[in-house]
Design goal:
With 198 residues, the chain is α/β, with parallel strands linked by helices. The protein contains seven helices and seven strands; from the N terminus they run αβαβαβαβαβαβαβ. It has a single domain, classed as Rossmann fold.
């Protein structure tokens, strides 16, 4: 009797991305730009943002399926056709984004700070992630980052400030305020705005 081998990492990755394409691409339709929130949580912020910006197609992603489902329920209650939530990592979504489709804005709000130094490699705001993100972002499009963990803010600011694909804006106002669950729990927080450099 032959043994059934476990699928390789690459096979699992390919399958996951094929499933993501099947869910995401029909929702994209013929749109050529989208506004992305990475780690959309329960969808509070992006639902409010999409309500105020009907001209934008807004996509929130999260790796927790329960959060995605909550976001979808908010979208449906608000009857928003310019908003969706997808169960995906940022890396996978960027990998399946079709050529000719680009990001016109990115929000990263209160991501996991991974405070222990040995876990810093898991932080989203890394040089390689920002490089890949820039390849799918319109020149000049903004990246909005906010955290309540001061050491992570300093870390992220340094990574962005020294990155050739991004330029931190000076004294730029936050474009839209709507309190998230994480923000409501934070006594203080810090924000930065950067723009994609062609």
């Amino acid at each position: 009797m032959s043994e059934i081998s476990e699928p390789s990492f690459q096979e699992r990755l390919d399958q996951r991305r094929a499933e993501l394409k099947a869910v995401f691409l029909p929702q994209l339709k013929d749109r050529r730009t989208l506004t992305l929130e990475v780690g959309a949580g329960h969808g509070h912020f992006l639902t409010a943002y999409a309500t105020q910006h009907p001209e934008r197609f807004c996509v929130g992603i999260d790796i927790m399926s329960d959060r995605v489902n909550r976001g979808l329920r908010k979208r449906d209650r608000a009857r928003l056709e310019n908003l969706t939530f997808i169960h995906a990592s940022a890396e996978d979504l960027l990998a399946v984004l079709p050529e000719g489709v680009s990001l016109d804005g990115i929000f990263i709000l209160f991501p996991d700070p991974w405070p222990k130094r040995r876990h810093w490699k898991n932080r989203l705001m890394q040089t390689e992630f920002l490089r890949v993100l820039a390849t799918r972002t319109q020149p000049g499009a903004p990246l909005y980052f906010r955290t309540d963990y001061a050491p992570y803010f300093e870390y992220a600011r340094e990574v962005v400030a020294t990155h050739s694909n991004w330029k931190i804006g000076s004294n730029e106002l936050w474009p839209f305020e709507h309190q998230t669950v994480f923000q409501s729990r934070a006594p203080t927080y810090q924000s930065l705005v950067a723009h994609c450099v062609p």
